[in-house]
Structures are given as C-alpha cells and as structure tokens.
Task: structure prediction
Amino acid sequence: MKKNWDNPTEYVMPDNGVAVPAEFAIGKVRVAPATVLAPMAGVTDTVFRRFIRNASMFTPDSSGDVNQTVTNQQSGCGLIMTEFTSADGLARMRETKRKRYLTYYEDEHPISAQLFGSNPVTLAESARIVEDAGFDIVDLNLGCPAKRVTSCNGGSGLLRDLPLIGEIFQAIRSAVTIPFTVKFRMGWNDANIVCVPLAKMAEDCGLNAVALHARTREQGYSGQARWEWIAQVKDAVKIPVIGNGDIRTPEDAAAMVAATGCDAVMIGRAAPANPWLFRQIAQYTATGRYDQPTEMDRYRMIRTYFEMLLEEIEQEHPEIEFATPGRAETDEEKRRKRDRESARRDAIGKMKQFASWFTHGVAGGAALRRAIYEAKVGEDVMIAVEDFFDGKMKPVTEDVAEEPTLEALGAGCD
Result:
C-alpha cells in the first residue's frame, strides 16, 4: 500500500456549510457517522480495526482514550472493513484457518467483509460464509490494482468485463440476505471509464451501496483523484454512494461531500499515518475546528497498538506448558509452537511496517524507527518506544500545560 501522495492538493472547506453527514444507511445497517475505514491489504486486520475505532472516539467531552471500548455511535469511524480476502481461498480452506481471516470482535460492529475473485459460484459461496460468520455487510472488491490480483481477473481486472460483473452481482445477491456493496475504480484506464454504468448495474442487481475510488487502475495511486466521477455516479443512482480518494484532512472530507454530494466518505492511506483523522472529522463537523495530536497522544497510540498486537498473539497462540517436563513434543505441540513463532515474526514485521507511519510528525522519529527496525522480539520494540518517549517527555511531564503539539513542533498531519 502506497502511503504517500504525488498530488498534495489542499482543499478548502466550502462556504455553504456542507459537512460529512451524521449518518447514512446501507440496507438496514445504520452507519453513524458517515465515515468508512477502507479495506487495506496487510493493514486492516482486527487489531488495526479496533485500534482505529477506539482512537477515533469523539464526544463533545471525550478524552479520546484509545484504551476505551466504544461503538460506532461514539466513534468518528462509522464503518470498518476487513482486508480483502480471496473468495477461492476462503471457500477451500479448512474451518480453523478460515477463522483467522474472518476474526472480529463484538465492538467492531458494524463491520463489512470484503471479498475478491472472478468466479460467480465461488464468490456466492464465500459470501454465504461471511454471512454465517455474523458480518453485517459483504463487499466485492473491484478496485485492487495489484498485478497479482488483476492477472487472475480479480480486483480492478474485472472492470474490463461488465457482463461477468453482472453475473457475480446476481450470484452474490441471491446467496445472502445481508447488505451487499461493491468498491470499484473508474475503469481500467482513461479509454475505459465504466463507473457510471457499473453503478447503475449494481443498483439494478439489488446492491445496497457503491464506493468509488476516483482513479483508474492504470493510475494506481498516482495523480489526482477525479471527484467529478463520484458526482456523476451519485447523479446516476439512488442507492448510497461512498466517495474515496485523496482525503487527508477533515477539510478534504467536507470538500468531497460538497463537490460530489456523496453520502459518505471512505479513508484509506491517511488512516495509518493519522489514526485520529476520523475523530478530527467528527470534531470538525461538530465544532468547526479540530485538535492536532500531541507527543503524549503519539506515545499512547504507538504503545497501545503494539500492545494490542502482542496481546492478540497470546490469545490466539498461547505458549505451550508441558505437563511432564523433559518429555518429547508431540506433532501437534510442534505445530502449535511453529504457529506461535510465525505469529510473533508477523507481529514484529507489522510493528516495523507501521513504525514509519506512526512516527510521522514525531520530532526525532528516525531514531525510534531505527530502534524498532533493529529489534528482534516484541518486547524489545516496547522498550524502544518507552525509552524514546521517556526521554522526549520528561521535561514536559511536570507541567502538562506546556506539552508541545505537533503543530508547534512544525510537523502537521498529511
């Protein structure tokens, strides 16, 4: 996932007072506020989803404590989505492995599971699995530009075959009773813009909402998102339209709604760099202003996310205790030990991956990133975080009122 932008356009809040809607509905599912965390491969697992939901908490007198358990009614993030999951893999894998991809917690509702694939029968079967697992919504991915996905006619590769998309829509719609949505790009390239007829077909097939990332597959993540196509899709259908592309600030979110009339906004790449963005949007909508995160906010955020990752490992892969010391391990115990070590390695990799995002805007953050990259185990990462922020915050903890903001340090959120 590319986290930077080639097009740092700054949008200005329109004078007509248009703001992100307080809520919208996808079928019978109420989403409040009208903000959606985009599905991102390698990012939006259950830990990150819950982290964003809690980091986004906003009420007029809320502290924004990421450790509190909240619902979407208290959070600035109204709907969260899973990483995109292969329908073929989901249909074939055994039940125990399937749970790994479909794991979620009760405080994640409403939650949508996103699938990708090109076989109508397999996608319909996987959609039923998603419904049986208790998800509120099932979503079809027609937007992923990755070559390994499009080469199998998945993701945005399907945008070259509208008749097949129609078959998939009908197969999934007849297979499930929960709301069914689709996320897509404008088209394969500028010579093949299909977003308007695709949205109309989705509505005709009984889908409950559409989300448009206003770029073509050929663009990838480069260039400016062309919001005018979101407006055209909105004009063409009566079902809710979710706008996606180039939302980095609350002003961007409000500007997109004003420019396109979309019913909700979806945020992807900005979320890992600024996990408070959803809260800022809610605050901006309610008050016309929003707070920048402080050094203490950054510390709590990094520490909390890494702690959640490690706790998830302990819950899913507890350390094996031998009843008889010294005896030989069974094959099952060896397998469980391998799974645990694999999960720990994955967690360290994720910590290093997220370090570059989470330390964006932190003065001297390069030193923390270096310490995290050199760490071998999760505990070493936590020590590095504590040592780094302990040194930064000691001079200001005696007087909280003087705690510097990111804005004062000359580093804003992108």
About this structure: The CA atoms of residues 89 and 318 lie 26 Å apart. The mean pLDDT is 83. The first helix runs from residue 46 to 55.
